[in-house]
Structure prediction request, 397 residues.
Amino acid sequence: MSDLKIFSKDIPIKGKRIIVRLDLNVPIKNSEIVDDTRIKVIEPFINQLIENKAKIILISHLGRPKGKVVPELSLEPIFKFLKKKLIGNVYFYKENIDSKAVDSSKKLSPGEVLLFENIRFFKEEESDDETFAKNLSKLGDIYINEAFSCSHRKQASMHKITKFIDSYGGPILEKEIHSINLITKNKKNPVTCIIGGSKISTKINILSSLLKNADNLIIVGAMANNFLKFKGINVRSSLIEKGAEDIVKNITVLAKENKCKIIVPIDCNTSNNFNGKLVYKSLKDLENDDIILDIGKKTIDLINITIDQSNTVFWNGPAGYYENKNFSIGTLSIAKKIAQNTKAKSLISIVGGGDTVAAIKNTGLGKVYTYLSTAGGAFLESLEGKELPGIKVLKNN
Prediction:
């Protein structure tokens, strides 16, 4: 990470226009923000820039408008939220990125904030258009990427813009990269990775990559059903991914080669429908209508023992169908155990992925973990060893 240009307090910013690319892609329903996690994370840094008398230009996207103006994807609700939360004056700019926009950025008083409308309303953003990127760069004197979660995409406000302006990674982006290095490069063994979710095909690369860095790979969620089936267990009406046999076989072989132990559920909580009540079953007692919807108590004990024996834990993906409270037991027990060991034994705990972070948020334990990442795809691609386009351009050439 030493070759990455990271923004520091030593860089003079008083009176300068600072463009900050954020990921404020938060769920909004009826013009109200449903989950403000991503906004809360960036508030301290923006307030710090305000206190240091910078002129702050904020750029973000929301959803996938595909280069068209979609009123439901306006950043207006986010503007209203920031107005209440930030310590400086906040303004909203809804027009084109042209000389008028540049004038508006220059007219800001030190300590004021100008939020631009959804950057993806412009088709040139997603096509990484050079002229558009150059026009964006004219809005500021310094550029800071604080949108690690979007850095796997080659888009104008994260990629080409850096050709035209002095560019840095921000403190949150730096933390994301540091947390990935704690799993891959600077790891404290033994390392345990807990991977959940429904589809194994979407996580082949990440599983293959983690096997090379981990001592234990715990598979939970509907994905685990494919591993159980591979072991000859009849999972009855549980979710199975068609054509996953070869993937499971290859992962099993790769795990053996890398001396990584694969751990799968040994019992389960079931129902005959997703909204049903919990029925505990051993794997051998499953009946035709049974759907595995969570891990059982013996599996929870096994996972707890494995976490106790680990110095680093990475977790991505819920352990069950946690949207139904009856089947959130596994996910919550993993969350509590990791938090407990992080607090008591200095376990390095890194959690990645929106669903998992959302599940943890409900426990109130979020602040205990070493790092919580909402970056999703970008985080997983980094773990796979891919160099993200938005990060690559921030390196000293």
